[in-house]
């Protein structure tokens, strides 16, 4: 069994908690508007990808979806699976595109693929009606705008974390 860096595990746990908090805040703010989410928790997704890597990103996305479903009482409901599909689609895009594109493009693309994954699941498995495609168009437009602002927030957070060297894993004292 490999070594576990406790400091890294602590940071990732804190980032998962932050993603859950931001997702819940997003849910509370946008609850009057069905099908609209700002995507605050994807600030954390971008930070995790840049600071830790692909495996950690998938872990954070999966754990966030699971915990949010558990907290809000939507675990294993259609809402849970829609969220899971969107997050995994965005995560796959981020993993593939992260070496080639800017943070802003990644965020907007992640938003697009999140909405696209959710839209496919809803259209093909839940509501196969052409009228619903209008809602998806609105979701994509909102996603472009919110993806831009999510990228700006992620960039600010990454700059702060880099400036203060919060994520320095060279401390061997924390390995077990």
Textual characterization of the structure:
With 176 residues, the chain is an all-alpha fold. The chain contains 6 helices and no strands. The chain has helices at 6-30, 41-51, 54-71, 78-97, 103-126, 132-164. 32% of the residues are buried. The chain has one domain (6-174): Orthogonal Bundle (Arp2/3 complex 21 kDa subunit ARPC3). Helix 1 (6-30) packs antiparallel against helix 2 (41-51) and helix 2 (41-51) crosses helix 6 (132-164). The longest helix is centred in the last third of the chain and has 33 residues, at 132-164. The protein is 74% helix and 0% strand.
Describe the structure concisely.
The chain is mainly alpha-helical. The protein contains six helices and no strands.
Q: Which features characterize this protein?
A:
single chain; 176 residues; 6 helices; Arp2/3 complex 21 kDa subunit ARPC3; mainly alpha; 0% strand
Please describe the topology of this protein:
Elements: H1 6-30, H2 41-51, H3 54-71, H4 78-97, H5 103-126, H6 132-164
Helix pairs in contact: 1-2, 1-3, 2-3, 2-6, 3-4, 4-5, 5-6
Question: Which spans have pLDDT < 50 for at least 5 consecutive residues?
Answer: 169-176
CATH architecture: Orthogonal Bundle
The CATH first-level class comes to Mainly Alpha
Average residue pLDDT: 89
Largest sheet, in brief, is: none
* Count of spatially separate domains: 1
DSSP summary, beta strand count: 0
CA radius of gyration? 17 Å
What is the overall shape? globular
Q: What letter string, H or E per element, gives the SSE order?
A: HHHHHH
Overall SS class: mainly alpha
Helix count, DSSP H or I runs of 4 or more residues: 6
Compute the separation of the termini in Å: 10 Å
Q: What amount of the residues lies in strands? A: under 5%
The level of helicity is: over 70%
CATH topology: Arp2/3 complex 21 kDa subunit ARPC3
């Amino acid at each position: 069994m490999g070594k576990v860096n406790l400091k890294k595990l602590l940071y990732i746990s804190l980032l998962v908690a932050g993603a859950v908090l931001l997702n819940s805040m997003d849910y509370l703010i946008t609850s009057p508007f069905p099908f609209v989410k700002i995507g605050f928790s994807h600030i954390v997704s971008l930070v995790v990808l840049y600071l830790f890597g692909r495996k950690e990103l998938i872990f954070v996305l999966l754990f966030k979806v699971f915990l949010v479903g558990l907290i809000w009482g939507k675990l294993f409901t259609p809402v849970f699976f829609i969220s899971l599909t969107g997050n995994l689609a965005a995560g796959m895009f981020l993993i593939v595109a992260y070496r080639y594109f800017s943070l802003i493009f990644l965020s907007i693309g992640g938003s697009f693929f999140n909405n696209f994954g959710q839209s496919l699941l809803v259209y093909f498995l839940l509501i196969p009606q052409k009228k619903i495609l209008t809602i998806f168009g609105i979701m994509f437009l909102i996603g472009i705008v919110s993806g831009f602002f999510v990228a700006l927030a992620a960039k600010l957070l990454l700059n702060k974390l880099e400036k203060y060297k919060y994520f320095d894993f060279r401390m061997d004292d924390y390995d077990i």
